[in-house]
Amino acid sequence: MTALLAVALLVAVSGEGDLPGAVAGGDEAFAAIDYRAAVERYGGALAEDPGEPRILWRLARAYVCMAEVEEGATRMDHLSRAEAFARECIRADSSQGEGHTWLAAALGYLALDAETSRKLELSAELDREAHRALAINPADDAALSILGSFYRALGNVSWLERTVASVFVGNVPPGGYAEAEEALTRAVAIAPGVMRHRYELGILYLDMGRKREARAMLEAAAALPVRTAIDRPRLEKIHELLEGLPDR
Questions:
Q1: Closest by Cα among 46, 39, 27, 134 to 88
Q2: What predicted TM-score, i.e. pTM, was given to this entire model?
Q3: SS3 helix, strand, coil % of the chain, rounded to 5?
Q4: 54 pLDDT more than 90
Q5: Radius of gyration from C-alpha coordinates of the chain
Q6: Is residue 9 part of a domain?
Q7: 8-state DSSP, 245
């Protein structure tokens, strides 16, 4: 799976006036890509209201976004924290779709560095959690984008690799390029201003050999504003890819 997610930016959720005031400050810091300040403010809000799921998923989201631009032990620490906060959110209120979404995001990144058997276990849980998020909110563009990346990765797994994996380490979840295109197209339609969705769809088109469609999608992604930390290196990658693609 490629670099996953920096999705679901500043989420304006109605009916959240009962949350501690520090949450609004955390949302502002998150939107400004100041994740450390966001974590600090969300943490202060959680101290006022322990176990509040709407704070817990925000902490999970912030740690995922921090992990995306880190490496090594720091990255793994952020992902472990993201996973823990997302699981705590789900335990507190499993109807909070964002808890499932950001658990799926954390699991996707953890799977990248896991051994094969653990990778399959994490991938299967990612699939379940993203679908649980979508069952709660079918318009969750972050969950759709996660699934799209996941299915694209599955599309790059050959029949032979799937067969060998099923024999020795367990079944590979179903899915492939067609499912990836459907999920990512839906994510773009729901949140057309999120660079990540268009970038991932462009990469999918490259994998499928659809270079002109890839160029169009990557150009559209490049025209969008940077809204998360990972968007900066993502934008550099887009420009590199565009240099090697044919004109329309």
A1: 46
A2: 0.87
A3: 70, 0, 30
A4: yes
A5: 18
A6: no
A7: S
